[in-house]
Each structure stands twice: as structure tokens, then as C-alpha cells.
Write a structure and sequence with these properties.
heterodimer, A: about 375 residues, alpha+beta, 5-stranded antiparallel sheet, 5-stranded mixed sheet, 12 strands, B: about 220 residues, alpha/beta, 5-stranded parallel sheet, 9 helices
């Protein structure tokens, strides 16, 4: 392809178009600045380099690079890297890059490439970070699933194994009861039966809480659900001098959800709040505040306490199954809460700072 | 020196390997004189390196590496043969040597300088690219018997002629000799004033030194 005159004129270095006798057909502006007027390219080549020039500018070399001393306007000899390229039999392009200058030019190009590479590198690093974050999240998800499902298995096995002896204990206790009445100690049997029922209940709760079933949705008034939960925790709370308040701000529409499961979530959050208060200087003047907020598409339920709060690291891992900071905790509660909320198509979030209390927010979609 | 030996030496020079070059040369010059070392070994090798450049096989940078090694080899040679040459004697003839203004090729003159020393001259080598003005000043003050000027590139010929003109205006008549690669390419004699001697190569220099009566004086001292 012919290099058109307009484009080569602005080349930032001496450039010549010559014919097969090296007669100059065209030059770049830089050529006119550096070199005297000449008819033939060889006139500009140092006598000592001329033979070399003639030899290597021949068309046998389609493309080549030679060092040549060229004579400039001020008659100084300057060493050039001369690159030649034959377009066809009658047309040779001659690019002259001054030796030292060529180093500078190459350095500029290298520098440009380096900065390009650097920015590329940066974006790559960013991407890598993003990918790593995604990977971590995926790992968390996978781990959660793994933990939950294996826990579920273990729990159901344990529950199944425990149920059998509990049933027989219960049967024998009932058989024993009439004999105890005779001795006036029948209330022992009642206590024992109650305890067995409690144990059975625990097992049931455990199995059902570790493996939340798909929500059994009904038309429910959330405010009523919350009031129920507060009421059932009131007794325990007053023992700890802890006030639980529901701040009613709006009237909420009836909502489609599983009341048992949502109760479990809120109850869990309140229990955690009470534990946090017990572990803080606010022990004895605890305060747990529930709020609901109706947005365009969502209902927000928040549970705020004035307890001990959590470190950032704890906050990060709070929903991980089996993660716990409590001496006797199993690390199940919140992971199950999360699962339930997710099953309802919602999210659960937490914000907390050490000594500044904790706020859990459950966001449920409006259905 | 066989072609094979020369090729070997050239590859050492281009690789910047002074020690290998030197040990190779030591084997070659055992019973030979300086002219053999300078002309038949170094000059021949450097000419061949010039041809390599002409053939686009090496770059100017490679050439510079080789000529630097060459310079070191000359110094090493001079250092070794120094002990054998005559020590300073009062009244020695004086030779002032330099490359013309603008001329950077100085290896040849360095060889000439050591040949003059070897032949008992009080020699001052003023190096490459000596401005004309300074050469005249130096000649006026030091008053050498011989002034040697080296020239390799034809473009410096006008400068040489100007310099010769100024030297002819000195208030005494030193012997003026001109040499360098240029003499092998052009008939320099036709450009120069008649009193100027053109020396074509080191063997020519040797015969000129023998004929020159200044030289005879030196031989008497030796």
C-alpha cells in the first residue's frame, strides 16, 4: 500500500521516498529541516558509508535496517539507523532514525507502554479483588449449605435415636405414677413427665430449627406476631430488668408469611439482645426496641439493643453456622434466622459497634 | 597472523575480552617488532571490523567496544615494551602528534605515538579533535621538530588544509607529516603543500623514520 504524501509529511523523523536509482521522490518535513536539498539519497550518505548504502538499499532486501552516516545541513556526520522498505520495484521508503534519538524515542514508547501496563495491571488487580471477594462469598454460601445440611442430618439422627428412649421413659413413668400416688409422691412423676415432654420438645425444636422447612404462609398481621413474641419473652426479660418495647409507627398491612418461623426469628433476635445486655454494663437497665417500617416494596423489622455490641470480625461471621461467642451456644440461631428470612425472599442485616449496642434489621418483601 | 587467528582475535575484540585478546596477541608477536603488532595485527583486525560494519553484520556500538579494547591493548603493549626502550636523553628530538579538529578516530595516532617514543622521540600526543588554534599555540610554545596530524574522514580535509596553512606561518620550519586512514583512500599529496609529507601506513612511517636524519641522531643515542 502506498504511503500517501499527506501522512508521511508529518513523520517526526527524516523520511524519504526514492525510486530504484535512489532519486528522491518525496520527503517528510523533518527531512527538510535536517538535510540539505538533494536530488539523490546517496548524496546525503557519507562517502565512507556510500558503498554500504548502495549494497543494502537494493531491492533484494525487501526490508532491512542499516547504520549509515548521513551528512546533515551543517555538514556534520551523524549516525542514523536507516530502515528501508521496498513498496515495489520503483518505490523505496527510507526511514532515518538518529542513533541517539532513536534510543529516546524507544524509551518514550517503552515508558508509554509501561504506564499502559501499569493501569492494565491495576484494573486486573481490581478485577482479581472482585473475583476473590466473589469467591469468598461463594465459599461462605457453600460452607453454610454444607454445614446446615450435615447438621440437619446429624440432628435428625440424634433426634430419632433420643426419641425412642424418651418414649419408653415416658411410658414407664406413666406406669409408675399410680404407685407413687400411694406414697403421696406423685408430683415427682409429674415433674419427670414434664421434663420428658420438655426434652421431646427441645428435640423437635432442634430438628425443625436447624432445617427450616419451606414457609407455611398465611395472612398474618406482623404487629400481632411481634406482640406475641414480646409477650412470651416478657417473663424472662423482667427477670433481667430488661425492657422490651415495640414502637408502633405505622399501621401495617396484613402480610403473607409463616408466623411460626417469623416468630422464631424475632424470638431469637430478642434472646440474643438479652444475652448481649447481660454481658454489658447496661445489665439491669436493658432496653430492647422493636420497630417496623413500611417502605414501597418492603417491610423492615428492626431489633435494637443497648447491649455489648460486637467487633467487626464478629459481625462479619455472625450468620455463619456454628459461629458463636457464647460459652454455651451452638452457633445455630442466627444462621437459621437468615435461612428463614431468605426463604421468605428477604434479607437480614446487622450493624454493631463494641459498647454501642446492636441493631438487626429484617427486610421482608411486601406481598 | 592467519585469517583464522584474525577471526579469533576479532571475536575477542567484539566481545570486549581484553585478556583473551592479549594472550592471543602475545603468542603472535614473540619475535616480531611493534610495526607487526600495530599494522599486521591491530590495524588489520580493525579494518576487518570496519568491513563487518559495511556488511551490516555489526553496529557502531560493537565497533566502539572493539576499539576500546584495542586502546587498552596498545597501552598494555607500551607498558611492557617501555623497559626495553631508551631512557630519556637531553636533546631528544620532539614530536607533537594529534588528530585534526573534528576527527575522533584516534587509535592510529596512538600507535604512531608509541612508535615515535620507541624510536627515541620526546613525544607529545594531544589526542583526538584538537582545535586548530590550540595546535598552533602548542607548537609555538613547545617548538616540536616534527608535527604529525592524523585524518580519517574526508570531510575533515578542509580543516586539515586550513591547519597546514597556519602551521606554515610558524616562525620556524618543523617537519610536518600527515597520515591516517584517508591516505589509503585518496591521493592526499595533491591537496597538500609541497613541504608536507604524506605517510601511507606504519611501514611507510618506518622507512621515513629511517631516512630522516633526525632519526639517525636518535639511533646514535641508542
Amino acid at each position: 500500500m502506498y504511503i500517501i504524501e499527506k501522512s508521511y509529511q508529518t513523520f517526526p523523523f527524516p523520511f524519504f521516498v526514492v525510486d530504484q536509482d535512489f532519486t528522491i521522490i518525496g520527503v517528510s518535513e523533518e527531512t527538510q529541516l535536517q538535510f540539505p536539498n538533494a536530488m539523490n539519497f546517496l548524496e546525503l550518505v557519507d562517502l565512507g558509508s556510500r558503498k554500504k548504502a548502495e549494497r543494502f538499499l537494493k531491492p533484494v532486501f525487501e526490508k532491512t535496517k542499516v547504520e549509515l552516516n548521513l551528512v546533515r545541513k551543517d555538514f556534520t556526520l551523524t549516525l542514523f539507523d536507516v530502515y528501508t522498505q521496498w513498496e515495489d520495484e520503483n518505490r523505496l521508503y527510507v526511514f532515518c532514525i538518529e542513533k541517539q534519538e532513536s534510543i529516546q524515542q524507544i524509551q518514550t514508547i517503552i515508558r508509554k507502554l509501561e504506564t499502559q501496563l501499569e493501569s492494565e495491571n491495576l484494573t486486573l488487580l481490581e478485577k482479581q479483588e472482585q473475583f476473590e471477594a466473589t469467591l469468598r462469598r461463594m465459599e461462605q454460601v457453600v460452607m453454610k449449605h454444607d454445614n446446615l445440611s450435615s447438621l440437619g442430618k446429624i440432628a435428625s439422627i440424634v433426634a430419632g435415636d433420643l426419641k425412642k428412649p424418651l418414649v419408653s421413659i415416658r411410658g414407664f413413668l406413666q406406669l409408675l405414677k399410680p404407685y407413687l400416688i400411694e406414697t403421696g409422691k406423685d408430683h415427682y412423676a409429674d415433674i419427670a413427665l414434664e421434663e420428658v415432654d420438655y426434652a421431646n420438645n427441645l428435640i423437635y425444636e432442634y430438628v425443625s430449627s436447624t432445617r427450616p422447612t419451606p414457609p407455611n404462609k398465611q395472612q398474618v398481621n406482623i404487629q400481632k406476631v411481634l406482640m406475641d413474641v414480646i409477650q412470651s419473652s416478657q417473663k424472662e426479660a423482667s427477670k433481667m430488668n430488661c425492657e422490651i418495647k415495640y414502637v408502633k409507627e405505622q399501621i401495617l398491612p396484613v402480610q403473607e408469611l409463616d408466623p411460626k418461623q417469623i416468630k422464631q426469628v424475632v424470638l431469637n433476635l430478642i434472646r440474643n439482645a438479652m444475652d448481649a445486655i447481660q454481658a454489658s454494663p447496661n445489665r439491669g437497665k436493658g432496653n430492647i426496641q422493636l420497630r417496623t417500617r413500611l417502605n414501597e416494596n418492603t417491610i423492615k423489622i428492626s431489633v435494637k439493643d443497648n447491649g455489648s455490641g460486637m467487633e467487626e470480625n464478629t459481625v462479619k461471621r455472625i450468620f455463619t453456622p456454628f459461629f458463636t461467642t457464647k460459652e454455651r451456644g451452638a452457633g445455630i440461631g442466627l444462621s437459621v434466622c437468615q435461612k428463614i428470612v431468605e426463604n421468605h425472599g428477604g434479607i437480614i442485616e446487622v450493624s454493631s459497634k463494641p459498647d454501642d449496642g446492636t441493631t438487626f434489621i429484617v427486610v421482608l418483601p411486601l406481598v | 597472523m592467519t585469517d583464522k587467528q584474525m577471526n579469533e582475535l576479532v571475536s575477542f575484540l567484539l566481545a570486549g575480552d581484553e585478556n583473551s585478546s592479549w594472550s592471543l596477541i602475545c603468542n603472535l608477536i614473540e619475535d616480531k617488532d611493534s610495526f607487526f603488532f600495530f599494522e599486521d595485527i591491530l590495524t588489520r583486525s580493525m579494518r576487518y571490523i570496519g568491513e563487518l560494519w559495511e556488511n551490516n553484520d555489526i553496529s557502531v556500538a560493537d565497533e566502539h567496544v572493539a576499539s576500546n579494547i584495542c586502546n587498552l591493548l596498545i597501552s598494555r603493549y607500551n607498558f611492557q615494551s617501555n623497559n626495553e626502550t631508551a631512557t630519556l636523553v637531553e636533546g631528544k628530538p620532539k614530536a607533537m602528534l594529534f588528530c585534526i579538529q573534528g576527527e575522533e578516530h584516534s587509535i592510529g595516532m596512538k600507535m604512531v605515538s608509541s612508535i615515535f617514543k620507541e624510536n627515541g622521540y620526546d613525544t607529545r600526543y594531544l589526542g583526538a579533535n584538537l582545535p586548530i588554534k590550540d595546535s598552533i599555540i602548542y607548537a609555538n610554545i613547545w617548538r616540536p621538530d616534527i608535527i604529525g596530524i592524523s585524518l580519517s574522514i574526508i570531510y575533515n580535509l578542509p580543516t586539515l588544509l586550513e591547519c597546514l596553512k597556519k602551521l606554515n606561518q610558524l616562525d620556524y620550519n618543523p617537519e610536518i607529516i600527515v597520515g591516517g586512514r584517508i591516505t589509503s583512500l585518496y591521493q592526499l599529496k595533491s591537496y597538500c603543500p609541497s613541504n608536507v609529507v604524506v605517510i601511507e601506513g606504519l611501514y611507510h612511517l618506518r622507512s621515513w623514520l629511517k631516512e630522516n636524519k633526525l632519526c639517525e641522531r636518535v639511533y646514535v643515542y641508542n
